[in-house]
Amino acid sequence: MENNSTKNSTVLVVGATGVLGMEVCRQLAAAGKKVKGLVRTSSQKEKVSDLRQLGVETVTADMRDPQSLCGALQNVDAIISTATSTISYQEGDSIETVDLAGQLNVAEAASAAGVRHVVFISFPPMTPEFPLQSAKRAVEDRLKSKNFTYTILQPTYFMEIWLGPVLGFDCAHAKAVIYGEGRNKISWIAIKDVASFAVASIDNPTAQNAVIQLGGPDDLSLLDAVGIFEQESGQTFELQNIPDEALREQMVAPDSLGKTFSGLMIGLNEVRTIDMKETLRKFPIQLTSVREYARQMIAAGAAVYLRRPAFAFLFL
What we know:
The protein is of the alpha/beta class.
């Protein structure tokens, strides 16, 4: 059921030039929403142009600069914040400045500007502790304390990233890196499905002041995923194993990004699956399977459409 108070709302997407943010903008525009996309002076011109071609009004500000957010949030009813320094990385970004301080700035600015609803992309709690998780939990706590409605979405591992070439899952060359034993079941989720939940949360009353864990339709281990790619491609994959001990040793890395991706890689072998039955009853979204994703990747030649971040081959 649609919430009439948000039907004609203006939605600001923070992180609009990122992979997830761009998809959120595309879906909002397709749904007839008035969309603003937050961009920086350093944002790639091609991505800014892509946003404008979607019908998105771009507004220039920097979440690291609280003063710049004041004008960007004028006449904004809702915010969807997808911004992170871990994927859509720019020089000078860090988990501390973007994922923590930047997101806290957005929360404070949203409260001051009278924004009614903030949708924040996080991830489910996991062990061990690492910088990105600490930042996410701090932002979640701040959102819950403010005077607006919040929706905290906690999707599990994105298949495009963790079953993609930037982290060593290279179906074009039939090679895959396996972090740890690779036998733990994971509810892989597609980026476009996360975007769909974010967009649907704007108008769905059940998303108000809610924390919602998100997964896909399959509970598959990394090795299971390799098997699906082998079936669909007709190739036998060459596997490279990164032992759990090596992942844990990297947790003492001096940089937050290195620690974070070590923690996320360890989490691949510890995270629990996510039962989506009740969530799909409230959000009737058709989820993408790993097999569908494998077919898409094979058909596309597994083109690398995500920029390789600095952490991508820490262990290779």
